[in-house]
Design goal:
single chain; 3 domains
Length: about 525
């Protein structure tokens, strides 16, 4: 290990020093997009300005997840800056499902809207948008989901890829924020903050302008500027961890649990200046998030699972909004592909699927497509719906397909690091590669040759908690002392971060796995 830590970090991220310097160049909320713009943005702006000039009736149609909530709030606030009153609607996952549907399109025709703006949806809403178009209603689509070869009959579309903003996908709220810059003629810090939250919540790749937006916001944001977000963040310094662990789950808990149109109050929470309402609604959000945690704490040890099968396929009286959390818990514990189904209002079964690395759910779904009413997602997280009558047939075929799959071995990279290199100075170097997230993960380190009999444990002997001196602690949660019986030396693979306790800061090496050593 003759290379410096910086050289090892450069190797880990497969970049050279010049690229590293460019990743750390000074950015601001004015300069972060580096000249990127949507195709034909002038027409998209003119479309809205013309409706405003004619005092037309406008409604925004968003989505129930954090990205959709942020995107809708960005647009509502944008119009508020222009002194334009607009209507907005966040669909309910239980009543409306995802995206603009025909029923709502018909309502908007009857209500004589002049403009419908979809945000975080719309790029595949062919029938609803055609109905609006045929009835003389203008449509602006602000979306980021994968587009088909054919595009809907919208009057204007802004989409990171379709509109050639750049080669990196971004969120629906990011799309709305970029649009707001052109309509307002300025960059608004609060709208940028909401877009920043969405980039993390929707797990967008932290590359290019996504990364630059986060770096600019984390540099420029001061705790105390915006009451609603400060509350969601527990008044902590804004970073990717605070967004991912505190803000996004709290926002998403509303969409997961609320079963009526009161979900729309969360937009008011984000755009209102009414401090009493913000405080009251924040208490409601906290309560809903605790309920979400409690509901998803199903003791999977008591579920009726056939662990001899290659995959776990179950259904139960679960809320649709939390089946993904249940599926993820089962997948982590048993390391198998999992699909958890809940009964939808129409009697069909809606499923959420999770799979360990090495599996491809999209590929598996293609091989069981005969049973699927709908499907979509990614390699390791996806969703589907099937007829309730097809559950057993689907279960049998899914397990059969998985059992024949060759699991692709995923080789993880890590950085060799010595104990004496774990310092605050080196943590600052490590963090110069941040923000960390999708497509740009936090670095994984390997501490070699740790003597097992020097490790200390928690009182219940279930966790490694060892002080290494010099404000350095080694922790390895959920790894009981019994797991390391009869072992002499191990390598520990994990991450490094700064922690604080009673006002004092220390470094923590958090173990993720260990490798038995033969010496």
């Amino acid at each position: 290990m003759n290379k410096s830590l910086l050289e090892r970090l450069l190797d880990y991220y497969h970049i050279d020093y010049e690229t590293y310097l460019s990743l750390n160049k000074d950015v601001s909320l004015v300069s972060f997009r580096d000249g990127h713009e949507f195709d034909d943005i002038e027409s998209a702006v003119k479309l809205v300005k013309d409706v405003i000039a004619k005092k037309g009736k406008i409604i925004i149609y968003g989505d129930y997840d954090c990205d959709g909530v942020m995107g809708t709030s960005i647009l509502v606030k944008m119009f508020e800056y222009l002194d334009v009153v607009v209507d907005y609607y966040l669909p309910n996952r239980y009543l409306d499902g995802y995206g603009l549907n025909l029923e709502h399109a018909k309502e908007y025709v009857k209500a004589k809207y002049d403009l419908v703006i979809t945000v975080d949806n719309g790029i595949t809403a062919f029938e609803p948008i055609k109905l609006l178009h045929d009835n003389g209603i203008k449509v602006l689509v602000l979306d980021h989901h994968q587009a088909l070869e054919e595009l809907p009959l919208a009057d204007a579309i802004c989409h990171p890829i379709v509109s050639h903003f750049g080669e990196t996908s971004s969120s629906g709220a990011f799309t709305a924020f970029i649009y707001s810059i052109s309509l307002l003629g300025r960059v608004d810090k609060y709208l940028a903050l909401l877009a920043t939250i969405s980039v993390i919540s929707d797990m967008m790749p932290l590359l290019d302008y996504n990364r630059s937006l986060l770096r600019a916001m984390f540099k420029e944001y001061k705790v105390g500027e915006f009451m609603a977000v400060d509350l969601l963040a527990d008044h902590e310094t804004l970073n990717e961890t605070v967004i991912g662990m505190k803000i996004a789950p709290r926002i998403n808990s509303i969409g997961r649990l609320v079963e009526d149109s009161s979900i729309n109050q969360i937009v008011r929470f984000l755009v209102s200046d009414d401090k009493e309402f913000i405080l009251n609604y924040y208490s409601y959000i906290v309560d809903m998030n605790e309920e979400r945690k409690n509901i998803s704490k199903i003791d999977i040890n008591y579920l009726d699972l056939d662990l001899d099968d290659a995959a776990v396929i179950i259904k139960g009286e679960y809320k649709e909004g939390i089946i993904g959390l249940i599926a993820n818990s089962i997948m982590i514990k048993y390391h198998k592909p999992v699909v958890v189904f809940a009964t939808a209002l129409d009697g069909s079964l809606k499923g959420s699927a999770r799979a360990p690395e090495g599996y491809d759910l999209v590929e598996i779904f293609q091989e069981v497509s005969e049973f699927l009413l709908t499907s979509g997602g990614h390699s390791n997280a996806a969703g589907c719906s099937i007829s309730s009558n097809d559950f057993e047939a689907f279960r049998k075929k899914f397990i059969e397909v998985v059992s024949k799959k060759e699991v692709k071995k995923v080789e993880h990279e890590y950085i060799e690091i010595k104990m004496n290199e774990l310092s605050f100075e080196n943590l600052e170097l490590i963090n110069s590669f941040s923000p960390f997230g999708e497509n740009w993960p936090a670095p994984i380190f390997r501490l070699r040759h740790i003597k097992v009999d020097t490790l200390m444990y928690s009182r219940d002997h279930k966790h490694i908690v060892t002080s290494l001196g010099n404000k350095l602690k080694l922790v390895f949660f959920s790894y009981p002392e019994s797991e390391l019986a009869n072992k002499s030396f191990i390598d520990i693979i994990g991450t490094v971060s700064e922690k604080s306790f009673k006002g004092s800061s220390y470094l923590e090496f958090s173990g993720k796995e260990f490798i038995d050593c033969d010496f």
